[in-house]
Input
Amino acid sequence: QVQLVESGGGLVQPGGSLRLSCAASGFTFVSYRMSWFRQVPGKQRELVATINDRGYRSDYADSVKGRFTISRDNAKNTLYLQMNSLKPEDTAVYYCYTDYRGYWGQGTQVTVSS
Output
C-alpha cells in the first residue's frame, strides 16, 4: 500500500523558514520523480518543485526560485522542501506527489502571517 505522509507545516511569520518532509512507503522510492504541489482554496493545485529519481536535477516554480529547495534522501525514502524567506502568498496546503501511479499525500498546512 502506497503511503505519502507529509509533516512540518505550521504557522510562521513573514521572512521565516519551514522544512516540510514527506515519508514514502509502498513503492520503490528511488525509482521515481517526486514533487511538491500547493493549493489555496478556490484555486488549482500548482507545482512548486520537482526532483528527479536520483536527486541531481530539480526544477522550481518562478514564484519560489531562490527561496525554496527540494531534496530527497533515498536511503530514508523521504522527500524534503526547505522553505526560506516565506511570504504571506506562500500560505497553502502543501502536497507531496510521486510519479508512481500518481499518488498524493494528505497535505500539510503552511500559514505565513504576522
Notes: The radius of gyration is 13 Å. The longest strand covers residues 18-25. The chain has a mean pLDDT of 98. The chain has no helices and ten strands.
